[in-house]
Amino acid sequence: MKTTTIKFPAWLMAQTRLMRYFIIALLLHVALLAVLGSIKIVAILPKVVASFEGTPLPPPPADKEPDDPNAVYRDFEYKGPTVGGGGGTPGKGAGGMPAAGGTPAAYKAHILTPSAQDNPDNAAEVIGVISDAAIAIARPVGGPSLTSMSGMGESNVGTAGIKGPGGGIFGARIGPQRAICLKEFQGSAETEKAVVAALRWLKANQEQDGSWKCGQSPPAGTALATLAFLGHGETPDSAEFGQTVSKGLQYLAQHIDGSGLVTGVSRDYIGYGYSQGPVVLALSEGYAMTRSPALREPLDRALHAVFRAQAAAKTRPQDVGGWRNQSSSNDSDVSVTGWMIMALKSARAAGIEIPQAVFDKATQYLWNMYDTTNPGFGYQKPKRYPSMTAVGILCQQFLGNGKDHRIQGALDYLREQKVDWDKTEGDFVLYGWYYMTQAMFQAGGPYWQYWNGEIRDTMVRNQRDDGRWIPPPRSNIEGKDLADTPAYSTALGALILEVYYRYLPIDQLVEPSAEGGAVTTTPKSEPEAAPD
Question: What gap in Å lies between CA 479 and CA 476, rounded to an integer?
Fold first, then answer.
């Protein structure tokens, strides 16, 4: 190192002046870089805080309240069974709708399975819901074809925007809505099992021609039995009862003659009115729930016969607007009139236009039979009876007069009545309970609370093990003439226990009109005006 140090100055001095300056400058730069490289440089940067000012973001939108109580069903994806044929979309019913009786997969069908009666606990979850395993059934062969009854079709009965069948006056009968109403109006698993047991008994005891025996009027028995199936939401598409319903409706359609009157009736026994009214009622409900052309034409004829009977000349002015148990009677009674009014109201609910004058005259006739001294309705004069009071109340409720103070007084009278299977006396006890149950249900509130407590468990306790009912022991005419053909009492028993969902409360209903494609039936001759 020493040698190198001594020689370097000598070497440098040996260079030219310019070269010496260059070498010295180069060495100084190298030394400066070395010094700078050994120093740690720390950069202090200012702390920057971001700040955003301005209009805040809007809050998330609030959930919109449903427009109606059925809105909850509008968005579910229908997973129920469908049937083809009948002119509808493949895989759908006759009108392109899901098969009648279908229901979302989430709703189990405990109550309709054959094991329901063996296991009473399995009905408690979703009582009253139709099987989601329903499939299309074979149709009966012979007679007028009812294959067009498949599916619900396009009708005013359905509620717009809700997938599947239902809506309108009959909307609570089908699918989950039935279970909802059954709970809301205080039915029970026991009442629903009793209904299904009754329907199974009726199915097993249907005649080969589709009828049911009922004293001397098979059409009346068939109408009542068919109404019991329809009241439970059963149609020709129902898995278990489809054949039964189809054959019953076919029988009724075949027993309307060219003038619109019901045939196959011994008029000396039960009379025109007690067959014509129930048959027209069953055909009206059947048409509403199927839209079958096979039902529409005989229904039209039968309705014209009803119009003519109301327009028949009456001996007494107070009988104008009513009906009796012959097709051209010169008098009227509240009992037959009740069947006719309910039949006409169901026809209107099916979208068939019934002239308002027909209802107006019927309304006035009922008021003519009202007992102002003892609030209630009589049979052929204003002297009240429990059963006729119930008929009058129910009809006036459906005619839009349920809030009339006279109806409130009559309801108070019904609230005095008791239901005792072994002790209640009368000519038609079960028939009276059928109307009382509907009238009190439509009245709602304390009236329904009272009556439901009277009727519900009484009916369940007195059903036979095989599913049928026979008339109460002190029901004189029912016990004498109809006990041997218990389709009558079994159908009425089922209809009584279907009250929770058979018809919606009237104040929840909006009637269809002839607008928007509704069909129309009008009298061939306008009934005579009631006197002032």
Answer: 5
Give residues with Cβ within 8 angstroms of 511, minimum separation 6. 169, 348, 349
How many residues in total does the chain contain?
A: 532
Residue segments in the chain with a per-residue pLDDT below the cut of 70: 1-6, 35, 37-167, 266-273, 508-532
Report the SS3 class of residue 153: coil
Report how far residue 27's alpha carbon sits from residue 65's, in angstroms, rounded to the nearest whole number: 88
Dihedral sign computed on CA atoms, order 382, 386, 388, 391: positive
Question: DSSP character for 65?
Answer: P
Provide φ and ψ at 502, rounded to 5°: -65, -50
Q: What is the CATH number of the domain that holds 426?
A: 1.50.10.20
Are 270 and 232 spatial neighbours (Cβ–Cβ below 8 Å)? no
49 in a structural domain: no
Q: State the residue range of the domain holding 250.
A: 145-368+388-399+416-508
3-state SS record for 473-493: CCEHHHHHHHCCCCHHHHHHH
Within a domain: residue 68? no
* 256 SS3 class: strand
C-alpha–C-alpha distance, residues 152 and 130, integer Å? 15
**Quick one: which of 284, 287, 336 has its CA closest to 310?**
336
Q: Which of 267, 344, 331 is nearest to 305 (CA)?
A: 344
Within-domain flag for 515 = no
CA gap 525, 532 in Å, rounded: 21
Whole-angstrom distance, CA of residue 470 vs CA of residue 403: 35
Give the integer Cα–Cα distance in Å for 331 and 273. 12
- C-alpha span between 520 and 307 (Å, rounded): 14
Q: Rounded to 5 degrees, what angle do the CA atoms 526, 292, 159 make? A: 85
Measured CA to CA, the distance from residue 511 to residue 423 in angstroms comes to: 40
Query: What global pTM score does this model have?
Result: 0.71
Beta bridge mates, 371: 376
- Phi first, then psi: what are they for 498, rounded to 5°? -90, 0
Query: And the tokens for 472?
Result: 């109460």
Give the pLDDT confidence of 232-260 residue by residue, as tens digits: 999 999 999 999 999 999 999 999 999 99
Is residue 288 a part of any domain in this protein?
yes
Residue 99: what residue type? A
For residue 363, what are its two tokens?
């309304």
Helix H or strand E encompassing 34: helix 17-37
Number of domains in the chain: 1
pLDDT digits (tens, 9 = 90+) for 325-381: 888 899 999 999 999 999 999 999 999 999 999 999 999 999 999 999 999 999 999
Q: What element of type H or E holds 371?
A: strand 370-371
Query: Are the beta carbons of 280 and 250 closer than 8 angstroms?
Result: no
Task: Report the C-alpha gap between 236 and 151 in whole angstroms.
Answer: 8
